[in-house]
UniProtKB/TrEMBL annotation:
Post-translational modification: One or more lysine residues are methylated.
Keywords assigned by UniProt, alphabetized: Methylation, Ribonucleoprotein, Ribosomal protein, RNA-binding, rRNA-binding
Matching SMART domains: RL11
Superkingdom field: Bacteria
Record-annotated Large ribosomal subunit protein uL11 N-terminal domain positions: 10-68
CC per GO annotation: cytosolic large ribosomal subunit
Pfam assignment, any one: Ribosomal_L11_N
Cross-referenced CDD domains: Ribosomal_L11
SUPFAM superfamilies recorded: Ribosomal L11/L12e N-terminal domain (SSF54747), Ribosomal protein L11, C-terminal domain (SSF46906)
The protein's name: Large ribosomal subunit protein uL11
């Protein structure tokens, strides 16, 4: 079987189970001749085990024959940190104004969830990466 020719690779961040053919999906896929409703259906099916509304990055590979494949990534660290703390957004002045405090357990849980997409060799390194993201959001981290 010959390899299909790739015409485009798109990266989008969409809410789990709640994607619609409206922007940003339609305008991103339209120029490549890909059916937005078909992608939305498959994306929503693929994210049915993810909490509804949680932002999920997706990489869509579009081929010359107008077919496509997509790969789901783990939600951004900042989204997971906000969810763990139950806050709307990070601090506008991270070094002055603190918006919350992550426990070591919460930090480990987020690091374990993000591990497949992080460039880290072990859970300790992953935790340091997440800790840096938390600090830049104005979140204190225990230990």
């Amino acid at each position: 079987m010959a390899k299909k020719e790739v015409t485009a690779v798109l990266k989008l961040q969409l809410p789990a189970q709640q994607a619609t053919p409206a922007p940003p999906v339609g305008p991103a896929l339209g120029p490549h001749g890909v059916s937005a409703p078909q992608f939305v259906q498959q994306f929503n099916d693929a994210t049915k085990n993810v909490e509804p509304g949680l932002i999920v990055p997706v990489v869509i590979t579009i081929y010359k024959d107008r077919t496509f494949t997509f790969e789901l990534k783990t939600p951004p660290a900042a989204v997971l940190i906000k969810k763990a703390l139950g806050i709307e957004k990070g601090s506008a002045e991270p070094h002055k104004v603190k918006v919350g405090k992550l426990t070591k357990e919460q930090l480990r849980a987020i690091a374990e969830q993000k591990m497949p997409d992080l460039n880290a060799n072990d859970i300790e390194a992953a935790m340091r990466i997440i800790k840096g993201t938390a600090r830049s959001m104005g979140v204190e981290v225990e230990g």
